[in-house]
Amino acid sequence: MIEKYTPSDLEKVYEIEKLSFSNPWSENQFTEIEDKLYLAKEKGKILGFIAIDKILDEAHILHMAVRSESRRQGIGKKLIKFALKLPAKKWFLEVRAGNIGAQKLYESFGFKTISRRKKYYQDNDEDALIMELVV
């Protein structure tokens, strides 16, 4: 079940964040976008989250993560399916060049790589791939 984020969810969301990324967002960054966050929950437990920014007919998946023990169970797909129900003609996201699993997930929805940002990630100078979906 996908639900809107509430401030009381911050601790659990941040726990997923820290375990999912080598250079995690700060708690303050989540607070700044709390109106853009949605959660995948099962039996009250947060399994993952997605942050979506929509302006006019374009949308951007700002951030997404799934609890490690819940990966490969369709949670990421559910989050993206939820996002894509929002009315937007173009969708964008950035993904690490080395995150092949995430790239394959996005490609399964029709996202295509349109450009590369060299040394985008500061923790290891990894490139970011910019992906786009036109609906």
UniProtKB/TrEMBL annotation:
Alphabetized UniProt keyword annotations: Cytoplasm, Transferase
Record bears the keyword Cytoplasm: yes
GO CC annotation terms, alphabetical: cytoplasm
Span of the signal peptide: none
Gene Ontology molecular function: any one: protein-N-terminal-alanine acetyltransferase activity
Pfam families listed in its UniProt record: Acetyltransf_1
Location(s) in or outside the cell: Cytoplasm
Catalytic reaction annotation: N-terminal L-alanyl-[ribosomal protein bS18] + acetyl-CoA = N-terminal N(alpha)-acetyl-L-alanyl-[ribosomal protein bS18] + CoA + H(+)
EC main group: transferase
Assigned EC number: 2.3.1.266
Top-level division of the source organism's lineage: Bacteria
Annotated ranges, domain N-acetyltransferase: 1-135
PANTHER family named among the record's database cross-references: [RIBOSOMAL PROTEIN BS18]-ALANINE N-ACETYLTRANSFERASE, L-AMINO ACID N-ACETYLTRANSFERASE
Function description: Acetylates the N-terminal alanine of ribosomal protein bS18.
Family designation: Belongs to the acetyltransferase family. RimI subfamily.
The protein, known as: [Ribosomal protein bS18]-alanine N-acetyltransferase
Record organism: Candidatus Saganbacteria bacterium
